[in-house]
Amino acid sequence: MKGKKRLSSSAAEINDSAFHNKRVIAGSPFDAQKAEPSQQKLTAKPALDPQRADLSWQHVKALNTQFASWVQSQLKSHPDELWKDGVQDYLTHALDIMEKFSDVVNWLKGNAVTGDSLSGAESYRN
Question: Residue ranges of the domains in the chain?
């Protein structure tokens, strides 16, 4: 075709290989998914402990519910102030949850590529 460039097969292979060593990770449900170079070989993934996953889910839900309630209260009582202290407190508690349930967080990160994070993590609750 006139005026259009096609990639040669070797150029296409180079382009594909540039993304071959990338994997999708998720630091938290609020982060956009990012790609990072895979430093590990694929190995057998440990199973998710349903009780630990459920407990972590309960902690996250409680924290978010409390935070949303606090935000609504602040909006009514202090709409003209910055809420830095409350946001920092939320982040501190979120990091504590991530630390306490690092096994669940690591499982979710490790399974984000295959999409197992949602189906595996939620299937025991349904």
Answer: 9-123
List beta partners, residue 35: 24
What confidence tier does 101 reach under pLDDT thresholds 50, 70, 90? very high
Q: With the C-alpha atoms ordered 124, 94, 22, 32, is the resulting torsion angle positive or negative? A: positive
For the entire predicted model, the pTM comes to 0.55
Q: Which residue has the tokens 């999708």?
A: 24
In terms of DSSP H, where are the helices of 1-126?
9-20, 50-77, 84-100, 102-110, 116-123
Closest by CA to 120, choosing from 25, 50, 15, 51, is 50
Q: Given this model, what pLDDT does residue 40 score?
A: 52
Q: How far apart are CA 56 and CA 53, in angstroms?
A: 5
CA of 114: how far to CAs of 32, 81, 108, 109, 124, in Å?
A: 17, 43, 10, 10, 18
Task: Tell the burial category of 98 from Cβ atoms under 10 Å away from its Cβ (0-12, 13-18, 19+).
Answer: middle
**Cα–Cα distance measured from residue 109 to residue 48, given in angstroms and rounded to the nearest whole number:** 12
